[in-house]
Amino acid sequence: MLEGRWQVLHVITNHEKRVAQRLTVYSLEHYLPLYTERSQWTDRVVSLERPLFAGYVFVRFAPEARLSVISTPGVLRMLGETERDTVSEVEIARIREGLASGCLLRPHPGIAMGSPVRVLRGVFEGAEGCVTDFRQQCKIVMALSATGQCFSLEVGLEDIEVLRRPMANEIPGRERQLALSRV
User: Fold this and answer.
1) Percentage of the chain surpassing pLDDT 90?
2) What are phi and psi of 49, to 5 degrees?
3) Assuming Cys at both sites, which of 2, 109, 155, 163 could form a disulfide with 159, CB separation 3.0 to 4.6 Å?
4) 0.85 exceeded by the pTM?
């Protein structure tokens, strides 16, 4: 077993298990974290094992095995080799331990704090706000347009969509002030 950091392979989505099987054939150390999810099919309920990180497989290898790794069928590319593009042994160990101990690890959409969002369902459908907190629900701060007074609303992540708005430094003068006052 190699020591050190894990490289991250970006693979074709839904081919993670095939890539992991191929890496096993090549005798390369790899890790594909999977979680179990129940899914309703038309005729029955089934338990499926799905990748925790869709489109990614972790691998550790000696430098001379690099060509075998990146030429594995299903591998799109290996993320850069800077420290920021690798995963530490501690992080992998935590994920392994969490999954083995029954922790409920699930994929989470990468929504950053401060992201502008629109509510998709419920009483506030169509309302826009800004993400301020994550707990079991996503907390959004909403502002009344007339008064500028704010209130918070907790909704499920499945009930919001992230909006793409120009960054403050992309908006000129007076329009910038108006855009910022709406968030």
Assistant:
1) 27
2) -95, 120
3) 155
4) no
